[in-house]
Design brief:
The complex is a heterodimer of chains A (290) and B (209). Chain A has 290 residues and is mainly alpha-helical. Helices cover 75% and strands 0% of the residues of chain A. Chain A has one domain. In chain A, 33% of the residues are buried. Chain B has 209 residues and is mostly helical. Chain B has one domain. In chain B, 85% of the residues lie in helices and 0% in strands. Chain B contains eight helices and no strands. The longest helix of chain B has 30 residues. Classes of the chains: A mainly alpha (290), B mainly alpha (209). Chains A and B meet through helix 6 and helix 7 of A and helix 6, helix 7 and helix 8 of B.
Chain lengths: 290, 209
């Protein structure tokens, strides 16, 4: 319960901080400002503290994800109208498009976390990057698999050497490189940092790879959803797409945090620190280390 | 130029390149029309694979006998040392490939102008291969099975070089404009020259701490 209270307190203070930030120029109440800033953010940079916070967050994201998956699939499969060109086959996009987006997004996120872990020597951030890499690879693979399933009835072929498919395939290779590099290094610290260098080099390379493949060959249909233009899809289709996107997003958070908990236990045990699971018994007395 | 003492390694890379390229006519149809159309890709892929062979030697020997740690401790900037090592590696194992490429091109029935384009694109592209490869070589220093791992890390990053290089030769065969592809290849080279040694330095420090 203490943790829940703590989360609520942090949330309240964050609210306070954002409120204050708006008025800070006018008020310049320095003492008040200092007091607001004194939340111990570093507390959650400690893996054992974050372990417990993550334990609370996993169901908070996991349950809405499950609900949204069900709702999104229902809207996508039963409510959305049949496409006049592609028939029912188009419905696979409700999984394909969110998976492709998540695959790209998670790579950038992974590189960012790896970079933070490297620059500030924060091992929690590096663990986060390791945890993200597997979910990201899974989504990338999913988008390729669903894409080829969709391609068969629509284009009449499982695979075309088209720009976007090829660049997604290369993204999958980059994920595999990151995962296998980390798996090959026994020393965790070195594995984290080596992974960070590779991920950052990959991020610099992604635009170059993307455009090179683009100029090389293109057949894939252009993006249908743009921020500024009016969408060219039927509203239920769009709704299903965004519900599925939100579901994938929440699912990623939940799964990444759950995996992060496992990684924390694994590594802290190796390092001879207190394992949060066993420390739970002493949680009420506020003990962090033996 | 110490690498010259181990001529066998250098020649092995070169012969690997020649053999891989020669395998393609044997495995496909030796129809001159077909050979001409696959030649750019074949030569470039073989160059990619051959350049990967020599990456293992870039830092490994110095790492084993401790020279690399001494190099890290010298007052000279590590950037320059890395740059020098990569340049030497390129000179020893990539320049022979560029020189032998026209001979292979003749086997594939390429015209004289195309051969020049092929050499020029290799001259622009192979330094990038060495530079990017040095990052992976530094990252995998002293690991088990690092050879396969280097391939896994480096090949996806080689793709832009492969595409622009092969497209330039393709365009030359088709008689269209080659300048844009070569300019892009040059741009990739400049980017790699600026950033890759820096990343290699960081990777070396991580591997040796």
């Amino acid at each position: 319960m203490a943790i829940l209270e703590c989360i609520i307190e942090v949330k309240a203070r964050v609210q306070l901080t954002t409120d204050k930030r708006a008025t800070i120029d006018e008020v310049t109440d320095h003492d008040e400002w200092v007091k607001v800033m004194k939340i111990n953010w570093y507390k959650y940079a400690s893996p054992s503290n974050f372990y417990r916070l993550a334990g609370k967050l996993v169901p908070m994201f996991g349950i809405p994800a499950a609900i949204l998956f069900v709702v999104g699939l229902y809207v996508g499969f039963f409510v959305a109208p049949i496409d006049f060109q592609q028939g029912d086959a188009y419905r696979i996009i409700f999984i394909h498009v969110p998976a492709a987006w998540m695959g790209m997004l998670l790579y950038v996120l992974m590189a960012a976390y790896a970079g933070i872990g490297w620059a500030f020597n924060a091992r929690l951030a590096s663990m986060m990057a390791t945890s993200l890499s597997i979910t990201g690879a899974m989504f990338t693979f999913l988008s390729l698999a669903t894409g080829s399933l969709w391609g068969k009835p629509t284009w009449g072929t499982w695979w075309v050497w088209d720009a976007r498919m090829t660049s997604t395939l290369i993204l999958l290779f980059l994920y595999i490189g990151f995962i296998s590099l980390q798996a090959a290094i026994d020393d965790r610290r070195r594995a984290d940092r080596a992974g960070a260098v590779l991920a950052i080099v990959g991020v610099i390379n992604i635009p170059i790879i993307y455009f090179s493949v683009q100029w090389w060959n293109t057949l894939h249909q252009g993006a249908t959803i743009r921020l500024l233009n009016k969408p060219t899809m039927a509203p239920p289709m769009l709704a299903a797409m965004f519900i599925m996107l939100a579901a994938c997003w929440l699912y990623s958070v939940a799964v990444v945090l759950a995996r992060l908990r496992c990684i924390i236990i694994e590594r802290e045990q190796e390092a001879g620190r207190v394992v949060p699971a066993t420390a739970a018994a002493t949680e009420f007395s506020g003990m962090e280390s033996v | 130029m110490l690498a010259w003492r181990r001529r066998a390694d250098v020649l092995a890379t070169l012969f690997f390149f020649v053999i891989v390229v020669s395998l393609f006519p044997l495995s496909t149809n030796p129809d001159p029309q077909l050979l001409r159309s696959i030649a750019p890709g074949v030569v470039w892929v073989a160059a990619l694979l051959a350049s990967m062979l020599s990456l293992g030697r870039l830092f490994a020997n110095d790492h084993v006998d401790g020279t690399l740690e001494q190099l890290l401790l010298t007052p000279q900037p590590l950037y320059l040392i890395v740059f020098g090592k990569v340049f030497a590696q390129w000179l020893v194992s990539e320049v022979p490939l560029i020189l032998v490429a026209p001979v292979l091109g003749v086997q594939f029935g390429l015209s004289r102008d195309t051969l020049l384009v092929l050499m020029f694109s290799l001259a622009l592209g192979t330094p990038v291969l060495s530079l990017i490869g040095s990052i992976a070589a530094a990252l995998t220093l002293g690991l088990r099975g690092s050879g396969v791992l280097v391939a896994l890390l480096v090949l996806p990053l080689y793709i832009p070089v492969l595409i622009f290089g092969a497209l330039a030769v393709d365009a030359s065969i088709a008689g269209s404009n080659i300048q844009s592809h070569l300019s892009l290849l040059g741009a990739v080279l400049i980017l790699a020259l600026a950033f890759a040694p820096w990343a290699t330095c960081a990777a070396l420090r991580i591997s040796l701490e």
